[in-house]
Write a structure and sequence with these properties.
single chain; 72 residues; mainly beta
Length: 72
């Protein structure tokens, strides 16, 4: 089982819970933005999403930024 802390589009924090059966089918694929599907539970006034499915979202390359080892 894995736990995560994420930030939504409005800058609000929330926790995620990932169970082993879900992670087998929908594993983490490195850093980035993920589309999450799950059920929300609120304990102690803080939301937690139990993840049922997730998919990594693609990045759109910005050709105006020149990446070098120096600025990574």
């Amino acid at each position: 089982m894995f736990f995560g802390t994420c930030i939504d589009a409005e800058g609000e924090y929330f926790d995620t819970a990932h169970f082993p059966n879900c992670l087998e089918q929908y594993p983490f694929q490195g850093g980035g933005c993920y589309l999450l599907l799950g059920s929300v539970e609120v304990d102690f006034h803080f939301p937690t999403i139990t993840i049922h499915k997730m998919a990594k979202m693609p990045f759109i390359p910005d050709h105006n930024i020149r990446w070098t080892k120096k600025n990574l």
